[in-house]
Amino acid sequence: MMAGENNTGSRTQRVIEGMAIWGSYYRANIDIFVEDYLQIDFLKWFQKILLVMMDRCRVFVWIAARGMGKSFLIALFAVIRCILYPGTKVVITAGTRGQSINVLEKIQTELIKRSKPLENEIDMSESKFSGQDAKILFKNSSYIKVVTASDNARSNRANILIVDEFRMVKKDTVDTVLKKFLTSRRMPPYKDLTEEERKAEYAKEPNKSFFLSSA
Predict the structure, then answer these.
(1) Burial 130-145, CB ≥16 within 10 A → b, else e
(2) pTM value surpassing 0.85
(3) 91 bridge partner residues
(4) Which one-letter DSSP state was computed for residue 122?
């Protein structure tokens, strides 16, 4: 082995270890990630609190008054999870397809225009922000997908389920169709862990449901 190869290996290992440290830090402090990495520094204090609560709760219900930025904030949370947790599946649904696509439009027209780092994370050539196949694909294999809340959506799977204007979605549809999306976990390749250690790691990252409505 040449001397340069050892130095390269050490440098690569230091980069990987540094990424793990920063990744863990940002996962624990997503409000700081928004400012540091996404360069979005205009959130109000209550919006930061809502973001943190979204991250810490398995089920999050938000009935938002006009002007609170409901669609913008849930769009921001969705892209944060997709970046920090590679392979995350986010499904957005509502009573009508137009309502569901509203969140994707926020990402396209507001978030991407304000955050160059976010644009670099998204595979723009494979993403569609409108139409029947509306979805945003990330370069790390995460995605945000829009589906209509109906029986036809049964085959979908998600780690993050967002039900927008949930008061307009039948409870039976939520219970028998939408909640069934959350049957599989994000599966990071913990190659060096035992089976028991893997189960412990997976338990730290439960799937999440969000139910949003205008006041």
Answers:
(1) eeeebbbbbeeebbbb
(2) yes
(3) 145, 161
(4) B
Please report the beta strands in 95-155, taking only residues with DSSP state E, as ranges in sequence order: 135-137, 143-148
pLDDT the model gives residue 1: 46
Query: Could you give the domains of the chain?
Result: 44-214 (3.40.50.300)
Task: Give the mean pLDDT of 107-131.
Answer: 93
Mean pLDDT value across the chain: 88
Provide the pairing of β-strand 160-163 with 89-94: parallel
Please classify residue 45 by burial: count the beta carbons closer than 10 Å to its beta carbon, then call 0-12 exposed, 13-18 middle and 19+ buried.
exposed
Answer yes or no: are the C-beta atoms of 83 and 117 closer than 8 Å: no
Please give the single-letter amino acid code of residue 159.
N
How big is the CA angle at 84 (ends 80 and 85), to the nearest 5 degrees? 110
